[in-house]
Amino acid sequence: MEQVTIPAGQLRRWRTPQEVAALAQRARRREVLTQTMIYVLLTLISLPIVVPYLWLVAAAFSERVSYGIIPSGFTLNNWRFLWVANLGFVSGTAGRLPNIWQVVANSLVLAVGTAAIVVVVSTLAGYFISRHGFSRRAGFLKGALALQAFPGITLLVALFILLRSLNLLNSMLGVILVIAALHLPFALFVMKGFFDGIPWDIEMSALIDGASRLRAWYTVLLPQARNGIAAVAMFSFLWGWTDYIYVLTFVLRRSSWTMALYLNSVIGEYRFADYGLMAAVGVFYMIPSLLFFLFTQRQLLQITLGGTKA
Amino acid sequence: MLLLFLGPFVLLTVLFFVMPAIITAFLALTNLDAAFQGTYVGLDNFRGLFADPLLPRVLLNTVVYVFFTLICFNTGLGLVLALLTTHIPDRVGTVFRAIWLLPRLTPMVVYGLLWLWFVDPTKYGMLNTARSWFGLAPLDLISASPWLVIVLVNGFIGASLGMVILTSAIKSVPEDYVRAARVDGASSLAIVRHVILPLIRWPLTFVLVNQTLALLTSYEYILLVTGGGPFYDTTVYALYVFRRAIQNGDYGYGAALAFILVVVGAVAALSYWRLLNFERMISAPKIEAD
User: Fold this and answer.
1) Is residue B153 part of a domain?
2) What are the two backbone dihedrals, phi and then psi, of residue A273, each rounded to the nearest 5 degrees?
3) I need a labelling partner for B61 at 20 to 30 A (CA). Which of A2, A25, B164, B290 fits?
């Protein structure tokens, strides 16, 4: 056997405990430095979002906002749109804004109506597509998936003409149907995903116990899918609540205005004149979205790709 | 049974997806105007596209807007946010991601209001307040840099979708790969470049394609903040359709403009099956007792 000689320079020796500790400390220090840099960077790029929202809330409750961001003089006067009929208009169009509670009622009709249609239709279709085989099932799924990817907003001009010929312009029902229909494919895949997640055994045992498919559906499967139903209900409520383009296009009558059109008009009237009032209306309008955001942001952040969970 | 469960879905989607698409095609062949008077004009509207003096500017706006918003924000910033927030403890990372999700959940008129305040041309807006600290005169940003405004307005909304999708993609990268690279002495940047990026290539492609289509067809935030102005300086193609058809009442010509978007949308939508792991979705149901 030939003796293998290792050149002195390449000879490894064990590191002493002190050296290991020093290395570990250096690595830790570098890690802390990296983390700090990430925090600083994230804070800096998130400021353009945080500051405007802080301003919005501050401006809604104060008389003045100095230096753009520092509020002073607490007041509820900006919220007078909730109890005063005539807001004191600046551009001589007094009385143009409809009553706020009428507007809130319209918005609620739109949001609840959209949610009701989307929940019922997507729960029915989502269940069927998840659990039943039928000819052209793959074709149906392909079609629904294509519709989900299709940008419905490009159909706005035709939808306007369609609603006009159906005599649904200016009616809340028309807007509800359009918003609901355009979001149905997405809701379908969400509901299908939830039904897919329910184990087959549960349904099987119900069937073995003598339940019909229909009975198994509403006594066994529906309760299991309640998280999905809740998610779709909340999403579709907000689609209706926050919509701007469709109400702007299809609702021309002042008495059918929703919060979006109301705020838009307030901005038109008071821009450059009363940021406090605009901010208060904005905060008021945001309340449902904020509640939704606070309670569900954890789930929202776990959307996975593939349209099965959202 | 089939009719009861799928009937409502099919009815609504045919009525509000398929019908409007057909109506768009037919409208595009007429000169329907604000008084709802119109006759068949053949392909005149499409010939008119080439003679439209506003269209070149609108198309240029669209290309600039889609390209820069997509690269800088919807994909670029989305990726950066996803990478940064997954490199810190998850509790803190979630807070930052939630912040970026906020604009998307805000009613769009409220989001528009925040921007109107930010770019307010008088000295009361945020931007001009900040400028005054440095002794600079108030600036009307929308007139001064119209492209910058439409990119920023959409970018702060758009970054969140990429962020959410790429975050879950990064989280699903096996921890072993990252550890192995680190043991081999790879720096954080090298790990991102050589381990994470290649593994999330597919979701990244999805975000790119999906967001290109989304940007191409969305205009509501631009409408709220600039109204497409001054003149047509911030009008992108989809907003041009809205302004010509809905605001000016040129339904026929507007439909011809919209028809092109409908075709683009349809082609993109039909190519989705490849992108979205379709085989998994059509796995057959286990009970066949109808």
Assistant:
1) yes
2) -115, -45
3) B164
DSSP of B172-216, one letter per residue?
A: TS-HHHHHHHHHTT--HHHHIIIIIHHHTHHHHHHHHHHHHHHHH
Quote the Cα angle for A156-A117-A126, to 5°: 100
- Structure tokens, B87: 């490199």
- Nearest Cα neighbor of A154 from B18, B242, B125 is B242
- Whether residue A155 lies inside any domain: the answer is yes
Task: Provide the number of structural domains found in chain B.
Answer: 2
Q: What is the ipTM of this complex?
A: 0.86
CATH number of the domain bearing residue B94: 1.10.3720.10
Domain containing A172: what range? Answer: 100-277+295-300
Beta bridge partners of residue A62, listed in sequence order: A74
CA distance B172 to B123: 48
Asked if B226 and B120 count as a contact pair (C-beta separation under 8 A), the reply is no
Q: In this structure, is residue A11 part of a structural domain?
A: no
CATH code, domain carrying A191: 1.10.3720.10
- Residue A304 scores a pLDDT above 80: no
**Closest residue, chain B, to A174 (C-alpha):** B16
Residue B140 sits at the chain A interface (C-beta within 8 Å):
no
Are B76 and B50 in a shared domain?
no
Residue B220, domain extent: 55-234
Nearest CA-CA distance, residue A7 and chain B, Å: 24
Local confidence band at B134 (pLDDT 50, 70, 90 cut-offs): confident
Torsion over CA: A18, A19, A23, A29 (sign):
positive
> SS3 for A253-301, per residue?
CHHHCCHHHHHHHHHHHHCCCCHHHHHHHHHHHHHHHHHHHHHHHHHHC
Q: Which pLDDT tens digit goes with each residue over B240-287?
A: 999 998 888 889 899 999 999 999 888 888 877 666 665 555 565 655
A112 and A44 within one domain: no
Which residue in chain A is spatially nearest to B172 when comparing CA positions?
A: A304
pTM of the prediction?
0.86
Contact between B257 and B241 under an 8 Å Cβ cutoff? The reply is yes
- Compare CB distances from A154 to B36, B265, B285 and report the shortest one's residue: B265
Phi, psi of A19 (to 5 degrees): -65, -40
Residue linked to tokens 């793959």: A138
Contact B114 A56 (CB under 8 A): yes
Residue A9 falls within a domain, yes or no?
Answer: no
Residues A169 and A251 in one domain: yes
CA dist B13 and B10 (Å) reads 5
Contact by Cβ (8 Å): A278, B125: no
**B107 and B203 part of one domain:** yes
* pLDDT (tens digit per residue) in A150-208: 888 889 989 999 999 998 888 899 999 999 999 999 999 889 888 888 888 888 888 88
Number of domains into which chain A is organized = 2
